[in-house]
């Protein structure tokens, strides 16, 4: 556990503020309970483990209620809204103080503080609770926060969650007993200010996932007096002895069911292995015809651990799943796609006909493992082109399909630069830069280009196990992004793919549905609609974008989710944008797909055009409603 710069003496008294009744403090605690628990969870030391941090955060927050009337601290940063409530100020200070105490090291000659001990309450018998896993950005932030001291984590959380100034943070930390508040604020400043990520499920102890505890051990405890020796043998076989590295089933929890079907699914000898040339004669061309590859396909110990963790992930396993993907164990023996060493990890890729599952454990034998799920039912040759083996140092490494003969790296924002060849070794491509791991401004978007016979496809990493396929063209009949026209269509809109990370995206199509002459005679603007389809069917994301001549990026004019627009079922779309000319004049520009017969604008801007394009003078900030009519008489509403 990290040492923390928190005073061991009682906290210095804060300036006396309004006296807070117990009822007032309780009302503030109940109203802002999720925020207080999130604050405690962020400040608690990561070394406690996610499950204990959750329970401790709830315990500390519930114990923050005073026993009688108590003066509230006076902190200048508290002025309006929630910060102006003295009851909230009191319970927040108590939560912060005890969370910092929980991270203090235990001393041999001193009684531990109550916050340093495991919480007695709350407790859920038979379950381990932990927050839902976030994306790559949230995981990176959590790792950075784990390197900070407790006061520095508190400073970062107060900045991000409470929106306090540095002076306000220093005063709150001083009231909580921190010896060097300014040093804590300075240390927190070394972490990028990604405060929006603090509101994600990764740091929400009130939105939890549940996993069973050690069910076998609970049963054995009831019979410990009669079978203590047998219990020791079982625990030694399941968990492995200290100092011997991985046990037979690694980071898996003990088994909770014994039946032939479940045992067959966990037997490495019964894994399905496809011959290397099966894909050439099979009626199907998807993941079901991938052969088993990698340098550890014969490592039965590794395969056993992977299957056991899949069926029963233990508390040290980081589990993630794309939206709409079940994370339960296999119904029968799955298919082995890969088992080998990737960078600093041993990786196993499995397929059960519905999902791709990736198991990874540290190569150095330390405890802890990762388990990732991705839904791939209905995948065809185009979608089954590659799977992510691992990500490290800003790069991603893919395992490609057996029919892929050539791989390359292409920058989607530089369509004329060509693709850089990537070496393929046993189907494993050389690492390429991953846009999903990048932070800061978007200046490039690198994608994987695979060649299947005479066809070229582009796949992009969106932070998930299976890359998304990129296409271009009219909905219902899109083509691959291979020719110059398709590549130039994607160029200004590549960075918009960042809004589709971790959403279970199967494919993204870009359709240039219209062009519009600008009213100041500066050229033609392009209207492009991008639609992201998901593996689960629902949750499709539509983005109408506007690009002016010479601009590096497109501008999002409208967006929607779960609508048929710009898709195969309804390829029509209508969108508008307020645009400022070089002379300083404002216009409402609107465009529909080519089969739009007329467009009408109402509201603050009024106008009508008997075509698929509309240009109307407007005022800055004006809002208008768009309605169109298709050539077949059907109405078309503007995308919002």
Structure write-up:
The protein has 640 residues and is an alpha+beta fold. The chain contains 14 helices and 31 strands. The strands form eight sheets. Strands 12, 13, 17, 18, 19, 20, 21, 22, 23 and 24 form a ten-stranded mixed beta sheet that branches. Helix 2 packs antiparallel against helix 6 (150-162), helix 7 (166-175) crosses helix 8 (181-188) and helix 9 (215-222) runs antiparallel to helix 10. The protein is globular, with a radius of gyration of 29 Å. It starts with 15 loop residues before the first strand and ends with a strand.
Query: What share of residues is helical?
Result: 10-25%
pLDDT averaged over residues: 86
Number of helices: 14
Query: Based on CA inertia axes, which overall geometry fits?
Result: globular
Cα end-to-end separation: 50 Å
Structural class: alpha+beta
Radius of gyration: 29 Å
């Amino acid at each position: 556990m990290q040492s923390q710069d928190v005073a061991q003496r009682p906290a210095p008294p804060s300036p006396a503020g309004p006296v807070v009744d117990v009822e007032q403090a309780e009302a503030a605690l109940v109203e802002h309970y999720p925020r207080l628990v999130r604050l405690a969870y962020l400040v608690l030391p990561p070394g406690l483990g996610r499950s204990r941090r959750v329970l401790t955060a709830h315990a500390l927050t519930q114990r923050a209620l005073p026993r009688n009337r108590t003066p509230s601290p006076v902190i200048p940063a508290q002025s309006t809204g929630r910060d102006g409530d003295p009851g909230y100020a009191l319970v927040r200070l108590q939560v912060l103080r005890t969370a910092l105490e929980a991270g203090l090291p235990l001393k041999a000659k001193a009684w531990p503080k109550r916050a340093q001990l495991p919480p007695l309450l709350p407790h859920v018998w038979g379950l381990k609770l932990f927050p839902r896993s976030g994306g790559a950005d949230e995981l990176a932030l959590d790792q950075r926060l784990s390197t900070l001291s407790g006061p520095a984590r508190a400073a970062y959380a107060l900045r991000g969650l409470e929106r306090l100034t540095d002076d306000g943070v220093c005063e709150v930390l001083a009231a909580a007993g921190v010896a060097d508040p300014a040093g804590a604020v300075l240390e927190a400043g070394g972490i990028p200010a990604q405060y929006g990520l603090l509101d994600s499920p990764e740091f929400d102890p009130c939105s939890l996932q549940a996993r069973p505890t050690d069910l076998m051990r609970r049963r054995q405890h009831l019979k410990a007096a009669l079978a203590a020796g047998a219990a020791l043998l079982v625990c030694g076989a399941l968990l492995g002895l200290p100092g011997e590295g991985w046990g037979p089933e690694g980071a898996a929890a003990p088994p909770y069911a014994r039946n032939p079907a479940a045992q067959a699914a966990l037997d490495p000898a019964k894994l399905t292995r496809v011959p290397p040339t099966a894909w050439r004669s099979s009626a199907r061309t998807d993941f079901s015809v991938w052969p088993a590859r990698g340098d550890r396909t014969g490592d039965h110990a590794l395969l056993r651990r992977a299957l056991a963790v899949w069926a029963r992930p233990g508390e040290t396993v980081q589990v993630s799943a794309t939206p709409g993907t079940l994370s339960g164990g296999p119904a029968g023996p799955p298919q082995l796609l890969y088992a080998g060493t990737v960078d600093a990890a041993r990786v196993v890729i499995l397929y059960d006909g519905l999902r791709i599952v990736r198991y990874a454990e540290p190569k150095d034998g330390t405890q802890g493992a990762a388990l990732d799920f991705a839904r791939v039912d209905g995948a065809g040759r185009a979608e089954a082109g590659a799977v992510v083996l691992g990500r490290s140092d800003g790069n991603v490494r893919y395992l490609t399909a057996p029919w892929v003969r050539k791989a390359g790296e292409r920058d989607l924002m530089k369509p004329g630069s060509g693709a850089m060849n990537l070496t393929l070794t046993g189907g494993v491509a050389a690492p390429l830069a991953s846009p999903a791991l990048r932070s800061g401004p978007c200046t490039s978007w690198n994608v994987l280009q695979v060649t299947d016979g005479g066809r070229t496809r582009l796949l992009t990493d969106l932070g998930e196990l299976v890359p998304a396929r990129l296409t271009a063209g009219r909905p219902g009949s899109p083509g691959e992004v291979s020719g110059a026209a398709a590549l130039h269509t994607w160029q200004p809109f590549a960075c918009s793919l960042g809004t589709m990370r971790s959403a279970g995206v199967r494919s993204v199509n870009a359709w240039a549905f219209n062009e519009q002459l600008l009213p100041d005679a500066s050229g033609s603007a392009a209207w492009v609609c991008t639609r992201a389809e998901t593996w689960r069917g629902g949750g499709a994301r539509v983005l109408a974008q506007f690009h002016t001549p010479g601009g590096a990026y497109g501008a999002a004019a409208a967006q929607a989710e779960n609508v048929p627009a710009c898709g195969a079922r309804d390829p029509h779309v209508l969108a508008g944008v307020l645009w400022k000319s070089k002379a300083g004049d404002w216009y409402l520009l609107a465009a529909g797909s080519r089969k739009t017969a007329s467009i009408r604008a109402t509201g603050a801007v009024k106008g009508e055009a008997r075509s698929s394009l509309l240009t109307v003078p407007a005022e800055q900030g004006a809002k208008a409603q768009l309605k169109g009519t298709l050539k077949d008489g059907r109405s078309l509403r503007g995308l919002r």
